[in-house]
């Protein structure tokens, strides 16, 4: 049985270094302990916050008036399935360690997701993606505790409702507790087709080409580190929650309006005539440059999408004030309202 603590500060458990205390705190070292802690809290009507790596969350200065369950379950199993390797990881496994192992073992499919902080259990929630790969491309099964029915069950990929930085887990966060995730990877020495231009340029290849797995991983880590997106205690730009805003997806009508305001804007064409626009470009064009600061918080000096707490001296209120300033500035200039990517616990922009 996991030990229940009180008055635990949450800031040290987040990459932003922000957040007050938890009324109650439990570290669950197994899937059974995870289920038991959440089931008991639900039965008692106690609010629950499930905390993974703390890399994609913003916790209020007031803390959390309920039970925080920190995910610490470990374990990875591997089985061959024809031409695939099925890798099942418990939700408390470090994501970066799993990617490193897959590259070392010669399993392709997640190599371009190197350097992303956090735990395995968070990857299906956000449909984590970067540099042309998303976990939805390899996830075959997610084991969950369904808090509505009280059952542990497996959801296949279709049931996960994956979209851009979206899933059924994100749409209904109070229902599912992710316990384990299964990825179908391809054995072989080469990466998947390189699908992101910046990565292709770094590798010196054309889009669609494959490269040695280790080369793809190394290039991604170099690109992420240059943007302050690889956790490094020596780099204050990594004291963030990663990209704070998602890239907006515009309808044809919205895209036409943006073209009127900013002819030739950068874009990625999406299905059904939709257009995805880089949020970093919108932010910069609205006048918010790298290093732009408000008190103790600032935009990263390396990457416009990251809002940072560089000296660990800020409050959550400070961070949200800067986020609102950026969001409102973009809306005023372009008529586009940016949406936060990190989970805001009891907070709104």
UniProtKB/TrEMBL annotation:
One Pfam short name: MurB_C
CC annotations in GO: cytosol
Record-listed E.C. numbers: 1.3.1.98
Intracellular or extracellular location(s): Cytoplasm
Signal sequence residues: none
Key words of the record: Cell cycle, Cell division, Cell shape, Cell wall biogenesis/degradation, Cytoplasm, FAD, Flavoprotein, NADP, Oxidoreductase, Peptidoglycan synthesis
Catalytic residues (positions): 165, 243 (proton donor), 341
InterPro entries assigned: FAD-bd_PCMH, FAD-bd_PCMH-like_sf, FAD-bd_PCMH_sub1, FAD-bd_PCMH_sub2, MurB, MurB_C, MurB_C_sf, Oxid_FAD_bind_N
Cofactor dependence: FAD
Every FAD-binding PCMH-type domain range: 18-226
Family under the similarity heading: Belongs to the MurB family.
Protein name stated in the entry: UDP-N-acetylenolpyruvoylglucosamine reductase
């Amino acid at each position: 049985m996991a030990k229940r603590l009180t008055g635990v500060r949450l800031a040290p458990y987040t990459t932003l270094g922000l957040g007050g205390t938890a009324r109650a705190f439990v570290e669950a070292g197994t899937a059974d302990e995870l289920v038991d802690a959440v089931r008991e809290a639900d039965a008692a009507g106690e609010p629950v916050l499930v905390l993974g790596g703390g890399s994609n969350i913003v916790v209020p200065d007031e803390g959390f008036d309920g039970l925080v369950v920190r995910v610490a379950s470990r374990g990875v199993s591997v089985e061959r399935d024809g031409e695939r390797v099925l890798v099942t990881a418990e939700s408390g496994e470090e994501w970066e360690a799993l990617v490193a192992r897959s590259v070392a073992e010669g399993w392709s499919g997640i190599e371009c997701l190197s350097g992303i902080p956090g735990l395995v259990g968070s990857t299906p929630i956000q449909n984590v993606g970067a540099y042309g790969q998303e976990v939805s491309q390899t996830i075959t099964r997610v084991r969950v505790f369904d808090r509505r029915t009280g059952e542990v069950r497996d959801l296949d990929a279709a049931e996960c409702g994956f979209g851009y930085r979206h899933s059924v887990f994100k749409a209904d966060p109070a229902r599912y507790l992710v316990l384990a995730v299964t990825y179908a990877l391809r054995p072989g020495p080469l990466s998947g087709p390189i699908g992101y231009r910046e990565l292709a340029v770094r590798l010196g290849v054309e889009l669609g080409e494959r490269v040695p797995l280790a080369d793809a991983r190394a290039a991604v880590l170099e690109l992420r580190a240059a943007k302050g997106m690889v956790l490094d205690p020596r780099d204050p730009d990594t004291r963030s929650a990663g990209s704070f805003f998602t890239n907006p997806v515009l309808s044809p009508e919205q895209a036409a309006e943006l073209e009127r305001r900013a002819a030739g804007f950068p874009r990625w064409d999406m299905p059904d005539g939709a257009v995805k626009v880089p949020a970093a470009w919108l932010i910069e064009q609205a006048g918010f440059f790298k290093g732009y600061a408000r008190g103790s918080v600032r935009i990263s000096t390396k990457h416009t999408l990251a809002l940072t707490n560089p000296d660990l001296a800020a409050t959550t209120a400070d961070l949200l004030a800067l986020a609102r300033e950026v969001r409102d500035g973009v809306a005023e200039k372009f008529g586009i309202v940016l949406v936060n990517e990190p989970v805001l616990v009891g907070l709104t922009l």
